[in-house]
Every structure is written in structure tokens, then in C-alpha cells.
Structure to design on (228 residues):
């Protein structure tokens, strides 16, 4: 099977306080989207399509000459749908990844892809919820403490049989889901899980950026190199 990937890179980065889209924010001298693309390729992905803000398509295409870069839509779901349509016919398995998760390791990419190749319709990487979770009302008053035992936080890349993901997007209409697995769930697809990675955290705020910078330095030190 041939594995392709769609990278959602349309985030504006307002909470980061950045002057550029989140995908172009620098991490150790390279934009987040470059780190995300590299992990996908090292994890066995043969073809990558990036959905980017229209005004930054050319800049990201220059950074990633081996990827196809397209203009995203108004929503994340619309952006993924546009990029999905640009994958070549040879792609059987599609991974959907957020550029905002730059340190998702290649091993995680390979694990998600392998689960789909082995027969799963849809796969998400997950980690256990560590914090106590409360349900609150509209005024912020606690209604109850939620049992966190069955709860999982979901990461990307998420993996799908191509026909499953296409069908889920066709059925979605104008719905904007926070992840593509949610669209698959809406059409009755069973979504299975694989273990996620502590490194695959999402960069949303400046604090998150500091954390991934520290993780990147730790990786470099473990390899005996020096992080830039």
C-alpha cells in the first residue's frame, strides 16, 4: 500500500502572538511545518500535500519542494478536504497531521500507518488524561468530577483508509470537526487507537513553543549533537 499524508497548516497563530502563520513559526531555525513534514517522510510517507493560507502557499512551497502545497479553506475540515483531493491515485492510506505538532516522532507516524495497512479503517494515537477532569455549567460551577479512566487525549497524525476518509468528508457538508476521526465517527466508522507519544504535543501558545524547544534540545543531546 502507498501511504500519503495531508498536513493542516492553516493556523493563524494568534495565541502564539506570532507575526506569521503558526506553520511558519521558527523552531530551532526551521519552521514548524518543516519539522512536521520531515517526521512524515522519515515515518514512511511517500507523498505529502500541505494545506496552507493562500497568501503563504508560495513561501511554504519553497520550503518544501518535495511536497505539494495548496491553498486551504475557511475551516480546518475544508482545508483537509482540499488537500485530500490533491493526493495522487496511487495513495491507499492517508495520514492527516497538524503542522502544529512538529515533534511527533517518525516512529509514531509509522505506527499509525502500520495499523491502517494491517486492516483498520481509522486510527488515532492517544495518551491517557493525567489531570482530574471536571464538568462545569455555563457559570463555571462544577457539576461533577468526570471519571478519567476511559478518557484519552487524541493526537495526530491520524490514519485512514483513503476511501473511508473521502466518504467521511463527503458526508460532512459544512461541518467543521476538530479532527478527522470525528468525521469518520459520524458515518459509523469504528475508530481504533494506538499509543501516542509525549513528544507529539500541540503548539498553541508561546509556552508550548518553549516546551517543544526543550524537547528538541533533549533529542539533540541524546544523539550527541548540538541543537541550533
Amino acid at each position: 500500500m502507498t501511504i500519503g499524508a495531508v498536513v493542516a497548516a492553516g493556523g493563524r497563530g494568534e495565541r502564539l502572538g506570532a507575526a506569521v502563520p503558526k506553520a511558519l513559526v521558527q523552531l530551532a531555525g526551521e519552521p514548524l511545518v518543516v519539522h512536521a513534514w520531515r517526521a512524515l517522510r522519515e515515518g514512511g510517507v511517500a507523498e505529502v500535500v500541505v494545506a496552507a493560507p493562500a497568501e503563504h502557499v508560495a513561501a511554504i512551497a519553497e520550503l518544501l519542494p518535495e511536497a505539494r502545497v495548496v491553498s486551504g479553506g475557511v475551516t480546518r475540515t475544508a482545508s483537509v478536504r482540499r488537500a485530500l483531493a490533491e493526493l495522487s491515485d496511487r495513495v491507499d492510506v492517508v495520514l492527516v497531521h497538524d503542522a502544529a505538532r512538529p515533534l511527533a516522532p517518525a516512529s509514531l507516524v509509522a505506527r499509525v500507518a502500520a495499523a491502517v495497512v494491517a486492516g483498520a479503517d481509522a486510527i488515532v494515537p492517544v495518551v491517557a488524561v493525567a489531570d482530574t477532569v471536571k464538568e462545569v455549567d455555563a457559570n463555571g460551577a462544577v457539576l461533577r468530577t468526570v471519571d478519567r479512566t476511559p478518557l484519552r487525549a487524541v493526537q495526530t497524525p491520524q490514519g485512514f483508509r483513503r476511501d473511508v476518509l473521502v466518504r467521511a468528508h463527503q458526508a460532512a457538508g459544512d461541518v467543521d470537526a476538530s479532527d478527522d476521526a470525528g468525521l469518520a465517527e459520524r458515518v459509523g466508522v469504528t475508530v481504533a487507537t494506538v499509543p501516542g507519544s509525549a513528544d507529539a504535543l500541540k503548539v498553541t501558545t508561546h509556552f508550548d513553543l518553549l516546551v517543544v524547544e526543550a524537547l528538541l534540545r533533549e533529542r539533540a543531546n541524546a544523539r550527541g549533537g548540538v541543537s541550533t
Observations:
- The first helix runs from residue 32 to 42.
- The chain has one domain: 3-124+152-222.
- The first strand starts at residue 3 and ends at 8.
- The two ends are 37 Å apart (CA to CA).
